[in-house]
Give the backbone structure.
Amino acid sequence: MSPNISALILTLGCIIITLWARKRIHQSYSKSIWRTTLLLFSFYFLVLTIVEIRWYYFHEYAASFDLNNNGFIDWRETNSESQNAVRKIIDDAPRNFAFLTVGVFSFLVSLLYLLIDVVITFLKIKRTYNT
């Protein structure tokens, strides 16, 4: 099992736990953190799913050149298009590190969302107390 599949399963569990915890949150700043956590895990799950679907498409495309279905592309089945398809699978370093890079990207997007949400929540609370 690839690290991406393991990360997808773990993230799905985290999304379920986050949705379950929604009933227990009543304070406005805690709701901001809850929304940010849900965004973090959902965004991570979505982007990592897209990466896995893309890799599956490359894998199936390369397998279509295996005419005798033995699991290998023999020298009789080789052409420039099949070599490019196999090269896309072999040289797919972004897929191997996707669970890390997508995690950092999701964290940065969620952090930006948290900062904006906390400022908006602060302004709403301040306006409520002033009126």
Residues 3-130 form one domain. The radius of gyration is 22 Å. The chain has one domain: 3-130.
